[in-house]
Amino acid sequence: MSDRRKLRAGLIGLGAMGRNHARVLSGLDGVELVGIVDPAGDSSGTLSAPVLPELGDLLKLGVDYAVVACPTALHESIGLELAANGVSALIEKPLAQSVEAATRLVEAFETAGLVAGVGHIERYNPALQSLRTRLEAGELGEVFQVVTRRQGPFPRRIADVGVVMDLATHDIDLTSWVTGQEYTSVSARTVSRSGRLHEDMVAVVGQLTDGTMVNHLVNWLSPLKERSTVITGDKGCFVADTLTADLTFYANAAINTEWEALRNFRGVAEGDMVRYAIPKREPLLVEHERFRDAVEGKEADIVTLRQGLRTVEVAAALLRSAADSSTVVVDGQDASLAESAAVR
């Protein structure tokens, strides 16, 4: 890549995730990090680019694209300003804090004809990428159920959204992506136990277009950090641990259990268990490589704004369901996975 002009990139936000973006951008082949926007400045003195107080200062430097890693409540205003100035953008998830704001971002970048993506980093986790490939190959047969568990201590950097928009959007996006299916209905219950404005826990039951049942348990009140995706089908089940990027397959076996009482209880026979050897590259680095390629006009697997909008729509449906104690039909299915296949 040294024989071509480097892309000029900017970063907006120097929180915990912003610093990770700065680290990756600073060493990304074919890209020069030219400026970082954060009103609080930088006290570490370790960054490779100047820290600027306002977005306008970054725009004056001239950038091809920017990574938006500021609080979710600011995504819309910053994204609209970038689009108005002809700057492509990789916006951290969730795309925005409301369906209306996310829709305005989609329309702005599409009207401007700019490359734009959403930072749903789990799509680049090696365990989930391998899982998706294996599901597409039919290794599980018919899929019956997707269960995710995502819990851990409260991230003090989050103040403007609750656990649904911050954490559950990971599980919403990855579930649709690995299965190739859309959500059709959701039922959710939330609780708030920490005294903060937003919900701390959510339990979700949902259904996908092919009838697959979905369950999500998400909270940020647990000292146990867990990131688990379990997909069960007629040939067994896959277990993806996205903390360690391990993927394990538990197969149904043809060997019958001779112990009658146990056989009657289990319902299926136990088979082999395989933990796959998977090449493990840092998901954030892979995400940045894909987005860089897209900005350069190459075919690249990025999460489009319409896909990010769809995830916000499902998350909003969860919050409506929890508020009304009802099952909510998920509308607005224009962010189709056919588009995802076309991008790939």
UniProtKB/TrEMBL annotation:
Q: Where is the GFO/IDH/MocA-like oxidoreductase domain?
A: 129-238
A GO molecular-function descriptor: nucleotide binding
Q: Where is the Gfo/Idh/MocA-like oxidoreductase N-terminal domain?
A: 8-120
Q: SUPFAM superfamilies, per this entry? A: Glyceraldehyde-3-phosphate dehydrogenase-like, C-terminal domain, NAD(P)-binding Rossmann-fold domains
- Transmembrane stretches, by residue range? none
| Superkingdom of origin organism | Bacteria
The record's annotation in Pfam families points to: GFO_IDH_MocA, GFO_IDH_MocA_C3
Q: What is this protein called?
A: Oxidoreductase domain protein
